[in-house]
Amino acid sequence: VDQIDEELMDLAYQAGCRQLHIGVETGTQEGLDFLKKGVTIGQLTRAFNLAHKYNIRTIADWMIGMPFEKSMDDIDRNFEFLLDLDPFYAQINVLQPFPYTELFSQAEKAGIDSLTRWQKWCANPQPEFERTIWSEFFTANELTSKSEELYRKFYFRLEYVGKSITHLMSYRDFKRKLKGASRIFFNSNKKIRFK
Hints:
Order of helices and strands: HEHHEHEHHHHH
Helix content: 40-55%
Number of helices: 9
Strand content: 5-15%
Shape: globular
Low-confidence stretches: none
Distance between the termini: 33 Å
Structural class: mainly alpha
Largest sheet: 3 strands, parallel
Radius of gyration: 19 Å
Number of strands: 3
Strand order of the largest sheet: 1-2-3
């Protein structure tokens, strides 16, 4: 998003760009700096505003369960920024530190995970392997439930439902959106196992 400006967005639209996928991840400058995103809250806001101006749909990737989110209130305050950006779609995931990343090194130091556990799994992969979350402040169940709650909060807003209906392109599009809404509402998503 640090490269997005009016000229680029205009060129992208003229070239046929109709959708942007943006890794927002979190809603505070502290969080962006922690993740070393190299962008600012202002740059993210500008990118989404320009996308709206040029009628380009946006997909925002979002994470919860960051080490700096120490309470559910912290997660909710961060999430308000995502709502302010008003992307067309949002993907909300629970943070998972993966080996050989700086975040994983911090998780090892905090006693949350170990490289040895992953090496054993690589040597003998088993389907019941549990991915690691940052479990210092929340359990896996708490974060999974919170992500489901945030999905509902995002997709079942009246203004979002109205916007989504006005952007329907076909009966097939309607069926796809109805199926997605029922999965969120009835919580039938396949569970990821977390440690």
